[in-house]
Amino acid sequence: MALVEVEDLRVSYENPVLLGVSFEVEEGETAVLFGLNGAGKTTTVQTIAGLLKPDAGKIRLGGTDIAGRPPSKLVPMGVALVPEGRRVFPALSVANNLRLGAWVRRANGSEVDERRELVFEYFPRLSERVDQAAGTLSGGEQQMLAIGRALMSKPKLLLIDEASLGLSPALAKTVFQVVKRINDDGVTVIIVEQNVGVLPYADRVLIMEKGTLIFSGVGDEIQDANLRESYLGKAEE
Ligand SMILES: Nc1ncnc2c1ncn2[C@@H]1O[C@H](COP(=O)(O)OP(=O)(O)O)[C@@H](O)[C@H]1O
Ligand SMILES: [Mg+2]
Fold first, then answer.
1. C-alpha to C-alpha distance for 180 and 194, rounded to whole angstroms
2. Is the CB of residue 213 below 6 angstroms from any atom belonging to ligand 1?
3. N or C: which end of the chain has fewer CB within 10 A?
4. Cβ(38) to ligand 1 under 6 A?
């Protein structure tokens, strides 16, 4: 069953940017959204997360049309976004950054502790730095914290925008492996990437170009050499 159905989605800033995007992601899948800079990937995930209002089109979550609903409504429904640029609160400790992620969901104390333990299982490094100010963490640790914070709201749909940007190949791989574990634990994932290193972890590949979706494929279709060359760019060594 499709958890997410996007149908003819149109979004503008001053000018139209998404020109009618349609795709589906099945419950339990990890979908990777590829495309060059400016293709509309961030606009797509921000609209699904409720940060941007569409001009037209539908976004269904488990069959319910959620298009235009604000994050304050969507987070409790299980939609969480890890924004581009791993925005953590630099002056706050790791613990408080995580607590804020749960606050939106109005979780009680024991729920918060439970979620936090789960985040530390995924990212043991964070538990060693629990009282440290987030701004003093390495880039990779801040990305882990940004994902951890999103997990605190107990998402069923996790949207991750450019997880590997600026990370070493080894750290990028670590992040992809944890995203895979999160997915195995039942969370549906849409991850925006420009690094083909994510491909082994993807069930579905979506490719955008200039505000439209030009490819949606699963399994072997993903390995098509032309697609790789034309749209996915070069894998980072
Ligand atoms: N806040 C904004 N105001 C105006 N135009 C924007 C804004 N954000 C993005 N755009 C434009 O929308 C297009 C798609 O951007 P974006 O969704 O960020 O693409 P991607 O994430 O694939 O790089 C680009 O042409 C970009 O310049
Ligand atoms: Mg982007």
1. 17
2. no
3. C
4. yes
How far is CA 149 from its chain centroid?
Answer: 12
Max Cα distance, the chain (Å): 51
CA distance 114 to 103: 14
Report the nearest-CA residue for atom 10 of ligand 1. 13
Rounded Cα–Cα distance for residues 162 and 83 (Å): 8
Among 143, 154, 152, 124, residue whose Cα is nearest residue 193: 143
Q: Considering only CA atoms, which residue is closest to atom 24 of ligand 1?
A: 38
Return the residue matching tokens 């979550």. Answer: 61
**Token pair belonging to 210:** 């200039």
pLDDT digits (tens, 9 = 90+) for 163-209: 898 899 999 999 999 999 999 999 999 999 988 889 889 999 999 99
Cα of 112 to ligand 2 centre, how many Å?
30
φ, ψ (nearest 5 deg) of residue 128: -75, -15
Rounded to whole angstroms, the Cα distance separating 69 from 89 reads 25
CB atoms within 10 A of CB 128: 12
pLDDT of 9-20, one tens digit each?
999 999 999 999
CB atoms within 10 A of CB 36: 14
